[in-house]
Amino acid sequence: MYPFNWKKSVKVVRILAWAYLRHRVKRTPLWGHLYVTRKCNLRCGYCFFRDPKKRDLSTDEIRAVLDRMHAMGISFLAFHGGEPTIRKDFDAIVRHAHDVGFFTYLNTNGTMLTPEYIDRLGEAGVDLINMSVDSVVEFEHSGKDLMHGKKVLEDLLEARERHGFEITVNFVLNNRNIEVARQTLELMHSYRIPISVGFIVKHLFHDEQEPSLFFRTEAEKRRLFEVLDEIIVMRRRGMNIIEPTRYFEDLKRFVNHELEWECMAGRDSIGIDTLGELKFCGTLPTEDVSIFDLERLDTRVLHRWRKDKYGNCHERCVTNCRYVTYYYYKHPLRFVLEMAWFRRAVRSIRDRLSTLLGRPPRLGPSVPVRI
Ligand SMILES: C[S@@+](CC[C@H](N)C(=O)[O-])C[C@H]1O[C@@H](n2cnc3c(N)ncnc32)[C@H](O)[C@@H]1O
Ligand code: SF4
Ligand code: SF4
Fold it and tell me: Residue 360: its pLDDT value, please?
């Protein structure tokens, strides 16, 4: 079983408890996304985040945005892009965020992560590195595959022991990696890395994504449903998949236009784009309002603002991170019980008790690797 990181977990619980309290009492979003650049060194066929023309802020200006976000009550911070690590000052940005008191979470394609870069991030205090991995074999539509990224992943695993950060991977299920989905997830599981399984999102306002990545024909949809069922079985057998089982069932409803759900963008979280502007989510356009123009981040105002302006966008979009928070609002108890982190904590306590009582620890369920 993947070793349980007690030190990190105490930090998460402390920051989460504080964020939750503020969320309930002062109505501040639970977490924030900060787009530190929209530039990127890859061109993934599904991506709508990359925008080479968009200007970046300087290091000091980003520090000021971080201070503002923290002062406004955000304490969980996800670094987004573009590719954040192509910024030469990215470790300095992480260090500042850490010193201010954020829990920091980096989304990365991993291409810039040499062992030295990883050490710099570890020393700067990064808490979680979420690396994108779309395939175990070469994947021409993103390049985020293990033919390119295996060494980086191994370097991250090795550095995790030294620096104590957590590692997760983000896998985007699409019509071109579906036949290697099982193998890829099993390999990640054999590395004992928690896996986030996303589903390809179609942009609502432009049409530049590679069409063959989407499930369009009835045969492709049938194959998708089979693989979603396999993922559900793997999760039930103990694979460390972050999304709840219900998400994979609901993806089928979504593809069949039968899903009823509510996106919490603006209530659960808020995004800040590269020049400090408000951005409800990756798909919706950037608002013409800077974080410095807002007096406070009030979830009631933000949620209503988004709904009034963009209406029922959730009928045409479901993203895994939004779905996870929707699930939390809808089924809080089930959410906690289903959380991979919670299950690992329970197993860790059980193993410690077994050791204290002189019994051999029970092995968690495992999924065989078939590469
Ligand atoms: C926008 S990227 C930014 C960080 C970094 N460049 C990366 O690719 O990991 C964050 C995550 O969104 C995912 N992503 C990008 N476009 C997507 C889409 N259309 N549907 C679902 N996930 C997508 C990426 O694979 C990545 O895991
Ligand atoms: S690596 Fe990330 S930001 Fe870059 S093109 Fe791919 S998904 Fe977009
Ligand atoms: S459903 Fe949520 S994530 Fe999707 S476009 Fe609307 S606000 Fe954005």
Answer: 62
Retrieve residue 228's tokens: 């979603």
CATH of 6-356, one of 3.20.20.190, 3.20.20.70, 3.30.43.10, 1.10.3130.10: 3.20.20.70
- 261 neighbors 326 (Cβ within 8 angstroms): yes
The average pLDDT across 267-287 equals 95
Pocket of ligand 2 contains residue 367 by CB under 6 Å: no
Query: How much is the mean pLDDT over the chain?
Result: 91
User: Average pLDDT of 187-213?
Assistant: 93
What per-residue confidence (pLDDT) applies to 366? 46
Distance of CA 285 to the CA centre of its chain: 20
pTM of this structure: 0.91
- Report the C-alpha gap between 80 and 274 in whole angstroms: 10
Q: Where are the domains of the chain?
A: 6-356
DSSP one-letter code for 284: S
Q: How far is the CA of 352 from the centre of ligand 1 (A)?
A: 38
- The minimum-distance atom of ligand 3 relative to the CA of 306 is 7
What is the rounded CA–CA span in Å between residue 215 and residue 73? 40
